[in-house]
Amino acid sequence: MTTENEARTTAPAATAVERLRALDSCAVSDALDAYGLSTVTLGPVPVWPVRHVVAGRVRTVTVGPRDSGRPADHVAAAAVDISGPDDVLVIANDGRLDVSCWGGILSRAALARGIAGVVVDGACRDAGESAELGLPVFARAVVPVSARGRVVQYAMDEPVRFGDITVEPGDHVIADGNGVAFVPGAYVQRVIGFAERIVAREAAMADAVAQGRPVTEVMHDSQFPTTEEYGA
């Protein structure tokens, strides 16, 4: 018979995605700063009021103008079909705001696959449909203009430029009401661990404020180690 203590020791450790979902983009941004990583992107916002943290492994899609010399693959369709619950689709359309590269049918297909969310460097449409479905979508704009005849998929699962950031398959992403942050694959464990320590520190500080301690004292009290004292 397995005891409670034995069950705890044999329980599988939380995955990087699970740990990331327990954080927020602010803590992750602070942790990225500690490692000198500038991988927080400015601009994409939730197109409906997403109340939870979206996090997962990056699955990239590259989008560009329709060109008769290129295959005319429908944007993100193939990526949706091979993705799952721990994946977040990252669609790179060079920040283009005059045409959508994500819409309602894709949202329905993504929901059926259990995809965690979508982050678009550009515009999307059918925001209301995404909200009704409960699929988190982050984009730079919402427009009614269809991708049809205007943009197509160039590639997927390849490094992409998202604003000033290079995002690669194997990276992770976290997105919430504060913004979007990418975590390079080589730093995932270190950044998550550092962010968890930041969250613990801030929780202790919040408790101290709730107990009536002056915030000026709390912010400088040595019992709450700074991020520098944690070490990277």
What does this structure look like?
It is a single chain. With 232 residues, the protein is of the alpha/beta class. The protein has a domain of 147 residues: Glucose Oxidase, domain 1 (3-Layer(bba) Sandwich), CATH 3.50.30. Helices cover 34% and strands 28% of the residues. The chain is built from nine helices and twelve strands. Strands 1, 2, 3, 4, 5, 6, 7, 8, 11 and 12 form a ten-stranded mixed sheet that branches. A two-stranded antiparallel sheet has the order 9-10. Strand 3, helix 4 and strand 4 form a beta-alpha-beta unit. Helix 5 packs parallel to helix 6. The chain starts with a helix and ends with a helix.
Summed up, what is this model?
The chain has helices spanning 4-10, 16-21, 25-34, 77-81, 104-113, 127-133, 188-210, 215-220, 227-230, and strands at residues 40-41, 45-46, 54-65, 87-100, 117-124, 137-139, 141-142, 151-156, 160-162, 165-167, 172-176, 179-183. By secondary structure, it is α/β, with parallel strands linked by helices.
